[in-house]
Amino acid sequence: NGTTAAECTCKSGFTLDAVSGSCVDIDGCLGVNICSQWECINLPGDYSCQNPCYPNPCQQGGTCTTHPGDEATCSCAAGTYGYRCSQRLTCSTLPLSLSIDPASDLLALATLECKEIMGSIHLEGLNATEMRILEPFWNKIRSIGGQLTISGMDGFELGSLANLEAVGLDAALTDQPTILIRDNTNLNSSGFSLYQLVEACIHGTVRIEDHHSLCLSEHHLTALVRSLWWYNNSRIQVTHALMEGCTCSLFANGSDSCTTHPAE
């Protein structure tokens, strides 16, 4: 009768289904190692290799990196932080318990000009080089509302605390160590007396714990261990430190008395 049968041709990415006679999608992700290290996403007639770093999910200039099988991770630019670097580091966004250690973003902190810290600060394990990086931030601080803890610092300069005018503004710190120096933080006094720290303590005490070379720069120590030393009406307390050879000058002012108490 002169008629011809219809013939279907499918677009690229589709194939003709013999049963239904219609074009169906070919799963583009079925090939071997189609997207190498990236996740393959099948699309109608196509596929997409999902690179978690494209577009860059890191905000405010953050750098995106990824490894096979892992999601994107962000290295935040100085002054920013958070899962996707969405938060900017400012004096008002500092945590109420600020821990500063070698893993901290010291360069970001160094950009801040914070005279008043509302919460507590914990310095831990910083060496002299790391403290120099932190200096622009540290030297501007005049008051700390909570506690100041200095732990595991090698050759810590007491003089770096001379800028503090008030520590322990929180009345809840009364009779507690407002400034706590511990874990073998070797102290270099450089002419700066701990007595000056007492004057900055609005509430609480200055307490030094577990030291093996307390008078590092001024005195030679013997192996005599004093269990508990009290100075300046008990507002400076030293426990479990090598104290022989230390003099009142490091701790007290002028005629203030130094007394040794028996082990607790």
Provide a descriptive summary of the structure in words.
- With 264 residues, the protein is mainly β.
- The protein is built from 3 helices and 21 strands.
- The strands form 7 sheets. Strands 9-11-13-16-18-20-19-21 form an 8-stranded mixed sheet, with helices on one face.
- A hairpin with a 7-residue loop joins β5 and β6 (73-75).
- The relative contact order is 0.07.
Please supply descriptive tags for the structure shown above.
264 residues, mainly beta, three-stranded parallel beta sheet, 30% strand, rod-shaped
Number of helices: 3
Mean pLDDT: 76
| Main sheet specs | 8 strands, mixed
Low-pLDDT residue spans: 213-232, 247-264
Could you give the order of the helices and strands? EEEEEEEEEHEEHEEEEEEHEEEE
Task: Provide a concise account of the structure shown.
By secondary structure, this protein is mainly β. It has helices at 106-110, 128-138, 194-200; strands at 14-16, 23-25, 39-43, 46-50, 63-65, 73-75, 80-81, 87-88, 97-100, 116-117, 120-124, 143-144, 148-151, 156-157, 166-167, 177-182, 187-188, 205-211, 225-231, 236-242, 258-261.
Write the layout of secondary structure elements.
Blueprint: E1 14-16, E2 23-25, E3 39-43, E4 46-50, E5 63-65, E6 73-75, E7 80-81, E8 87-88, E9 97-100, H1 106-110, E10 116-117, E11 120-124, H2 128-138, E12 143-144, E13 148-151, E14 156-157, E15 166-167, E16 177-182, E17 187-188, H3 194-200, E18 205-211, E19 225-231, E20 236-242, E21 258-261
Parallel strand pairs: 9-11, 10-12, 11-13, 12-15, 13-16, 14-17, 16-18, 18-20
Antiparallel strand pairs: 1-2, 3-4, 5-6, 7-8, 19-20, 19-21
